[in-house]
Design goal:
Elements: H1 8-22, E1 29-31, H2 42-56, E2 60-62, H3 68-80, H4 88-95
Parallel strand pairs: 1-2
Length: about 100
């Protein structure tokens, strides 16, 4: 999607924001890797998109939960958005090895 449409990502983010504005109780989910087909180093594009989509209001994503870097980004983004009081969930996830040490 990213390499086939110049404004596709902006459109997706705008739609997520508008849905959350009009219907705050609605939950939004989507595939985090669908946007990077035909691009090199897709994992970076997917991770960046996930952070942007979460910032726009996406509640959940279809991801590989064993992908430790992606899980770390999710916990960090939730903490930075203020959805993790005192970063307790982030700290606990780190302690449980859900995203492991960053090298």
């Amino acid at each position: 999607m990213l390499c086939t449409s110049e404004d596709g990502i902006h459109t997706v983010l705008r739609v997520i924001r508008e849905i959350k504005r009009q219907y705050p109780a609605i939950h939004i989910t989507g595939g985090a890797s669908n946007i990077s087909f035909n691009l090199p180093a897709r994992k970076f594009v997917n991770q960046a998109f996930l952070v942007l989509a979460m910032g726009a209001g996406m509640d959940s994503a279809i991801i590989n939960p064993l992908h430790k870097h992606m899980m770390g980004l999710i916990y960090a983004t939730e903490a930075l958005k203020g959805n993790d009081e005192y970063c307790i969930e982030y700290i606990n996830a780190y302690r449980e090895g859900l995203f492991g040490p960053v090298k």
